[in-house]
Design brief:
- The N and C termini lie far apart (62 Å).
- The chain contains 3 helices and 11 strands, in the order E-E-H-E-E-H-E-E-E-E-E-E-E-H.
- The strands form 2 sheets. Strands 3, 4, 5, 7, 8, 9, 10 and 11 form an 8-stranded mixed β-sheet that branches. Strands 1-2-6 form a 3-stranded antiparallel β-sheet, with no helix packed on it.
- The chain has one domain: Metal Binding Protein, Guanine Nucleotide Exchange Factor, Chain A (Beta Complex).
- Pfam families: GFA (PF04828).
- GO terms for molecular function: carbon-sulfur lyase activity; metal ion binding.
- InterPro entries: CENP-V/GFA, Mss4-like_sf.
- Belongs to the Gfa family.
Length: 198
């Protein structure tokens, strides 16, 4: 009699969906390319984190492999639409994401250039579409169901601290509710990562 294998199946893509399962999605693993090479597209230079830029490149089940870039967003819209102190995103080209919408989908224009998509059955916030980059989609990291997710994703920054500044410092100018969360060594930006640092 053969012994059952304890090996988990190989992961071929990252997957996730809403809480009730009506909306699911998947997108590819980070490609094994030389991100710092001269013939690499700007998209990969922007959205892939090579081992040389990772905090702990040798940890996990995929040591010394590229990871997708994730960020912590603290903008007012993100915080209010999920009811949390921040929301975590991973950004992908829409062309690389396969979405199955088998239930009612809600769309909400949270500001003039932004549309958010969520499941109308369970309320899970899933996607963010910006008018300024129509070929891209932001996906909520917490909706990913792939095991050992952080073998494939690396957080690189905190964005839109300007909107949450009243949560960072208390009335005496000391640490407020977000101060501990922001004490992780990642760069902090007042708005987007191309702007002023906090």
């Amino acid at each position: 009699m053969s012994k059952p294998s304890n090996d988990s199946p190989a992961i071929s893509s990252l997957a996730g969906g809403c809480h009730c399962g009506a909306i699911t999605y998947q997108f590819p693993l980070p490609p094994a390319i030389d991100v710092e090479g001269t013939d690499v597209s700007e998209r990969y230079k922007r959205d892939l984190i090579p081992p040389s830029k990772q905090k702990f490149p040798t940890r996990g089940g995929r040591p010394n492999q590229n990871k997708w870039r994730g960020n912590h967003c603290h903008c007012d819209s993100c915080r209010r639409t999920v009811g949390g102190l921040m929301i975590d995103w991973v950004t992908m080209p829409i062309s690389e994401v396969v979405i199955s919408r088998n239930g009612p989908v809600g769309k909400y224009k949270s500001s003039n250039p932004v549309t958010r998509e969520f499941c109308m059955n369970c309320g899970t916030s899933l996607f963010f579409f910006g008018d300024s980059r129509p070929d891209m989609i932001d996906i909520t990291v917490a909706s990913l169901t792939t095991p050992n997710l952080f073998d494939f994703l690396e957080y690189t920054d905190h964005l839109w601290i300007e909107d949450a500044s009243n949560l960072v410092l208390d009335e005496q100018g000391k640490g407020g509710g977000l101060a501990g969360i922001l004490n992780d060594g990642l760069p902090k930006f007042m708005r987007g990562r191309d702007g002023e640092k906090f």
